[in-house]
Amino acid sequence: MLVVDAQPLLREALCEVLEHQLGLTATAHTGDDQLAMRIAVQSRPRVIVVAVDHAGAIASRLVPLHALAPQSRLVVLSSLTDLSSVQEVLALNVSGYLTKDAGLAELVDVVRSVLADGGSRPSPRIEQPLSARELEVLARVAEGLSNRQIAMRMDIAEGTVKRHLHNAYTKLGAVSRIDAVNKALLAGPPHGYRRRPAASARKNPTDPQAVSSYRPNRADSSRSSSSSESSEL
Questions:
Q1: How far is CA 94 from each of CA 98, 114, 192, 197, rounded to the nearest angstrom?
Q2: Low-confidence ranges of the chain (pLDDT < 70)
Q3: Which of 153, 157, 173, 149 has the alpha carbon at shortest distance from 228?
Q4: pTM
């Protein structure tokens, strides 16, 4: 395991947690990109947890790591939550994405899932495909929204949001919000699916920002902490 982040305390904490919870051996941790690339080539870690906190550094940090260590699974930990940055990250062969306000338990779950998937990026088989509405709800979860906020954005009842999440959990075999988002990301949307515009966009179709196209399989983070997950589904 290799951890790449500018903050020494965070790197050490992540290594300690993942070693203790998953039995991983921390090959190294560093905040230097060049050193990280050398370590990745030499040690061929099973998983690389890499922080990306600046939009301009997304490609320059992730592309070389993937090219030099294609067998390693990339799990991105980021403070970026805007959709364009999340989409860019998830288009670069990463296996998981978490925002930095996610709980440690969520990080452990994602890394465990990544390791269980083996050495390749899988496309999980879903016997019953997610509906467009379920995918839209998961896309909102990936933006870090609560159930109440999702309901307001989509102009539906909060209970309906919970029902869509419950159905998505069942179909995906997911155990948490972040697990559902990651599994939906790997599975991809149904052919031809396009996210419906938010209620505000439908009321104001001339707003280019509101009607901007978004594919939910390009988002994979959730700000919901494990402590609130039971109430949020």
A1: 11, 10, 23, 27
A2: 83, 87, 117-127, 185-233
A3: 149
A4: 0.57
